[in-house]
Write a structure and sequence with these properties.
The complex is a heterodimer of chains A (97) and B (630). Chain A has 97 residues and is α+β, with helices and mostly antiparallel strands. Chain A has 2 helices and 5 strands. Chain B is elongated, with a radius of gyration of 40 Å. The chains are: A alpha+beta (97), B alpha+beta (630).
Chain lengths: 97, 630
């Protein structure tokens, strides 16, 4: 279990990373390095988004599935890795060099 | 269920058809008693049809003629089609509606011989409609039968769409419920639930796996949303011809602290992976003595894989022929095989018995081809063993490398090994005393197995730390050249001798072609570049990594840089494209440098090198003739 903590901590301490949120299938937040309310918001909103994305992919081609999602906004980049029952969300500000 | 209804319908249809056929047959029999021959033949044919129909459970010929030959899409056996073809001489094809056996001309039989093209009916593959997991019904494969396969397919599609609809509605309903429920209760998991989730094994796996993916994605430096139309202040990081740049450095706090890197290598299959081996950490007694890490260039913080071993791993490489296997030689003389698909302990290992090595294995190499390859290992007790990768229990062959005319001991303490490209029999070994010998694996005509005592390559004054043959590529073959590096601060270039001239006595001493003497510390490794014929790199104990280009200058290196914190560098390995060099240092870091444009050769480079080598040869012989040795 401490490995998990360490991994999350290491991910979140990389430069440009604002936060890491781990969510389960129902949209309930398991761990977050952001403050609680923001983390919860991300949790529910992103899990909805992932669900819709998964369905769209499955409808387009029933053999296909969603493996990774990357949302690029003006201010941040949100990366979501859905796997099995859980989702891991990382928010970072990309390097503009 | 639906299937049964459909089956019922089909059965009814079949029964009807049979009845219709029977009626028609009676009708036929009655009005034409005169035609004895033809009814016989047609009735026999009809019997055949019936037999076939009953065996195959398909409606027989009469339905074809009724429905017309336009039913091309349906599934018909060739037998019934051939039965169709024979009646048409007695009726014209277009009048499919005529009952059997009616003659266009009354009375006399005029057989019309028409040329009929046998229509080859394509039997389409059986449509297997398999329901995927999302649909709750449990149906097996669905085989279309009967004439209305098209209709059935339509039906299935409609049903599927309906069920999909239903399921979506259900999901919607559920989600509404969930959302309705969630604001009521506290929208959080309780702490206990959280803890239990976090401790579950699959959560740990999930975090491990997804964090690797995310870290790789995060390391992308290129901002694809970059707006080139705006003027930016230039951040010139151009690589002009002669600069090298640190790409990344790999170090893991847990695994590589207090250890030094003993070997580095690149993967043949995935050019972004490299493997490095470490010796033991004297401060951490409980951790495994030998560690092998596989690093990914795109994942700078943590190794992709970590493998353990009981004793220090001195040399490691990816298997040339299996992208998943990693082979390592250890301080105890064992050879270990790890698999990236398995866990961190070795999958196979050799025994610590007399069969293999009992001294540290400092060098291993793989020779052969995909189907017939061997692993060759040498250790400091003077034995060379060859192994089959799937049978590491005992070596395929063991060879003692003896040099009988040595003053103190016969056995040769081997520190490095080199096979010329493409060779599987003759190899060169570098020893602790500083001489290089050629040896043969097998006895051939004119040479015995073991060290070839005809030549000894003497020139170094200290143990040889690296030996590398020129890789075979390009328009010219320089594979008879090899470089050696040694603790005596020099790097020497040699040419291999193969056939002893009859007049030379045994133990002829071969002198190096050239010696590179600019180093100011032990030179720990030397490697030719795999793409440029005249480039090679060296690493030294003072922390310097130098790149030499023989076409530009043979006296000084072209590029030289201090790597990392200036600790001694142990090993060097070029990537397959020749642009990246992986350097293992004694403080546990692995550095990857990019040498840029220098790595690409020009067409004349080969010629220039040939000229340089010839010059060296002529100076050497000239020097020898005058009595000067290097």
């Amino acid at each position: 279990m401490s490995e998990v903590e360490e991994t999350i901590r290491r991910l979140s301490s990389k430069k440009n990373v604002q936060g890491v949120v781990v969510v389960n299938q129902l949209g309930l937040m398991i761990r977050s390095t952001l403050e609680a309310s923001l983390g919860k918001q991300y949790a529910t909103l992103m899990s909805d988004l992932i669900r819709t994305a998964k369905q769209s992919v499955a409808q387009l081609d029933s053999q296909n599935e969603l493996t990774f999602m990357r949302i690029r906004t003006k201010k941040h980049e949100i990366m979501i890795c859905p796997e099995g029952e859980y989702l891991m969300i990382v928010i970072q500000t990309p390097d503009n060099s | 269920m639906d299937r049964r209804e459909e089956l019922e319908k089909k059965r009814l249809k079949l029964a009807e058809l049979r009845r219709a056929r029977l009626e028609r047959r009676d009708a036929l029999m009655a009005p034409q008693p005169t035609r004895t021959s033809t009814p016989g033949s047609t009735s026999s044919r009809r019997d055949l049809d019936d037999l076939v129909a009953s065996l195959v459970d398909r409606p027989a010929t009469p339905t074809l003629t009724i429905d017309g030959s336009s039913d091309a899409g349906s599934d018909r056996g060739a037998t019934s089609s051939s039965a169709v073809m024979s009646p048409p001489p007695y009726q014209t094809e277009s009048q499919g509606g005529l009952p059997h056996g009616t003659l266009p001309f009354g009375g006399r039989l005029i057989p019309e011989f028409t040329s009929v093209e046998a229509v080859i009916f394509d039997i389409p593959p059986k449509e297997r409609v398999v329901y995927n997991k999302e649909v709750q019904t449990v149906e097996g494969s669905f085989e279309p039968q009967g004439p209305s396969e098209e209709e059935l397919r339509e039906q299935i599609k409609a049903e599927f769409a309906q069920e999909e609809q239903l399921r979506l509605e259900l999901l919607e309903a559920e989600r509404m419920e969930n959302e309705a429920v969630v604001p009521q209760e506290a929208p959080e998991l309780t702490d206990e639930e959280r803890k239990s989730i976090v401790q579950s094994a699959e959560f740990v796996d999930f975090v491990d796996h997804s964090s690797k993916i995310l870290e790789r994605a995060m390391t992308e430096k290129y901002d694809f949303m970059k707006d080139y139309t705006l003027g930016l202040d230039d951040d010139t990081e151009d690589l002009n011809g002669n600069r090298m740049r640190l790409v990344s450095s790999f170090h893991d706090d847990r695994w590589s602290k207090n250890r030094s890197v003993t070997d580095v290598g690149w993967s043949t299959k995935h050019p972004e992976l490299l493997v490095s081996s470490y010796n033991k950490n004297p401060l951490a007694v409980n951790e495994p003595d030998g560690i092998v890490c596989v690093w990914n260039i795109h994942l700078a913080d943590r190794p992709e894989f970590v493998f353990h071993s009981q004793s220090d791993v001195l040399t490691v490489r990816f298997s040339d022929f299996h992208p998943n296997l990693i082979i390592g030689g250890t301080y105890s003389g064992q050879i270990l095989l790890w698999d990236t698909r398995a866990k961190s302990l070795p999958v196979l290992k050799t025994h610590l018995s007399v069969g293999g090595h009992t001294h540290p294995v400092y060098a291993i190499d793989m020779v052969g081809t995909q189907n017939a390859h061997n692993l060759i290992s040498v250790s400091t007790d003077g034995t060379m063993c060859s192994w089959q990768l799937d049978m590491l229990a005992q070596p395929q062959e063991t060879l003692a490398l003896d040099y009988p005319s040595h003053p103190t001991t016969d056995e040769v303490a081997v520190t490095t090994l080199g096979f010329p490209d493409g060779e599987t029999n003759a190899f060169w070994v570098g020893t602790e005393e500083g001489s290089v010998y050629q040896a043969n694996r097998y006895a051939r005509a004119g040479s015995q197995a073991g060290i070839n005592i005809a030549y000894s390559y003497k020139g170094h004054f200290g143990p040889i730390t690296g030996l590398h043959f020129h890789p075979l590529f390009g328009p010219m073959d320089f594979s008879d050249l090899y470089l050696t590096s040694s603790v005596d601060w020099t790097v020497k270039l040699w040419r291999k001798r193969t056939h002893p001239k009859p007049a030379t006595p045994d133990n002829a001493v071969v002198h190096p072609l050239y010696s590179f003497e600019t180093a100011d510390d032990y030179v720990y490794d030397v490697k030719w570049s795999p793409t440029h014929p005249a480039i090679f790199g060296t690493v030294e104990g003072s922390g310097k990594f130098e790149v030499w280009n023989l076409n530009l200058d043979t006296e000084v290196p072209v590029m030289s840089t201090i790597v990392g914190a200036g600790k001694a560098l142990n090993k060097l390995s070029w990537s397959k494209d020749g642009r990246h060099a992986a350097i293992g240092s004694s403080d546990g870091h692995v550095y990857v440098y990019d040498i840029g444009e220098m790595a690409t050769p020009h067409a004349e480079d080969w010629n220039i090198l040939q000229r340089t080598v010839n010059e060296m040869i002529s100076t050497q012989t000239h020097g020898n003739a005058l009595g000067n040795d290097y």
